[in-house]
């Protein structure tokens, strides 16, 4: 585990509580901007919109979702990490949060932000990714796809949310363990990648259940496998990679709310309390359940500990994958 990126994660609640107050004005004193570092249609966007609507009602100020995609999520993550820590700029981001600084180091690039530049507020969703293919593709199973990929190395195109983003890492984890090579096509987010999967411009995509469910029901895509440790209620007939003989292929795409480090402790506390109310709201839970991504709420202390452990696992996976073409 990289100490610069992750040792601060568990201490973030303490650091936030020691932050100096920004004057005496009541918070929020202006509109709140919730940055989603991906285009509409992906897991972070799915998490952000019901949460933003609830926060707006509870806080009495507009909460504007700002989709700022690019670089696998790094552009939006960096923008919030560098923003004024007054509680009026928030971030709804994914598990790639911890991977992207490590990818910068791996690729010998300047690191744009570290995890401890952001303070966790609450986890919202936590789903295993699913491996989906175009419904017109010939593969009816993972074994079919692996056999074809071995016969045509580097040919079958798959999409991702950007280099070393959540969807890229999960697919490279699969490819590494299956000893195959596919053609990585990066997009600015899962939404555009899903559009091209449906049209047939790419042939495979790993994404969250809530992102894929409607298209599976419409018959435009087919799901072959589940990256989780066990089957999920929204896709009960989809086997896990563990069941298929790939015990090391396990990946979860979580979404959580963050703010820039240094926010006043009173603001962090109010955000935590508001998120607790939001995630208990029946309408918010109904939206997530209907999308096939049930709520997976964690308050700040549990979420910070979860980030530290999940990040360590993902960094090990990225280091094992190493430098990849298109990274």
Automatic annotation (TrEMBL):
It holds the Pfam family TctC. Coiled coil: none annotated. Keywords: Signal. SUPFAM superfamilies: Periplasmic binding protein-like II. The keyword Signal applies. It comes from the Bacteria. Residues 1-25 form the signal peptide. PANTHER family: BLR1237 PROTEIN, TRICARBOXYLATE-BINDING PROTEIN. Belongs to the UPF0065 (bug) family. This is Tripartite tricarboxylate transporter substrate binding protein.
């Amino acid at each position: 585990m990289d100490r610069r990126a992750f040792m601060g994660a568990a201490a973030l609640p303490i650091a936030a509580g020691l932050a100096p107050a920004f004057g005496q004005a009541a918070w929020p004193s202006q509109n709140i901007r919730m940055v989603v570092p991906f285009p509409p249609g992906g897991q972070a966007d799915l998490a952000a919109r019901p949460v933003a609507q609830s926060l707006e009602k509870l806080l009495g100020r507009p909460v504007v979702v700002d989709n700022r995609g690019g670089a696998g999520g790094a552009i939006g993550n960096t923008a919030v990490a560098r923003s004024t820590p007054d509680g009026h700029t928030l971030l709804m981001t994914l598990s790639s949060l911890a991977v992207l600084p490590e990818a910068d180091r791996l690729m010998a690039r300047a690191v744009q932000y570290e995890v401890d530049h952001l303070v966790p507020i609450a986890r919202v969703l936590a789903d295993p990714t699913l491996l989906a293919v175009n419904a017109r593709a010939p593969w009816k199973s993972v074994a079919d796809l692996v056999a074809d990929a071995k016969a045509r190395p580097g040919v079958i195109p798959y999409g991702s949310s950007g280099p070393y983003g959540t969807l890229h890492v999960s697919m490279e984890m699969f490819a590494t363990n299956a000893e195959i090579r596919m053609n990585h096509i990066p997009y600015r987010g899962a939404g555009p990648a899903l559009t091209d999967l449906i049209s047939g411009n790419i042939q495979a995509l790993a994404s969250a259940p809530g992102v894929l469910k409607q298209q599976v029901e419409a018959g435009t895509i087919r799901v072959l496998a589940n990256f989780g440790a066990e089957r999920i209620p929204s896709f009960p007939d989809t086997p896990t990679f563990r069941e298929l003989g790939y015990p090391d292929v396990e990946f979860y795409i979580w979404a959580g709310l963050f703010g820039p480090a240094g926010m006043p402790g009173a603001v962090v506390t109010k955000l935590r309390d508001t998120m607790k109310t939001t995630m208990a709201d029946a309408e918010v839970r109904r939206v997530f359940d209907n999308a096939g991504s049930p709520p997976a709420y964690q308050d700040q202390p549990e979420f910070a500990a979860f980030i530290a452990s999940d990040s360590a696992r993902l960094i090990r996976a990225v280091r094992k994958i190493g430098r990849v073409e298109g990274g």
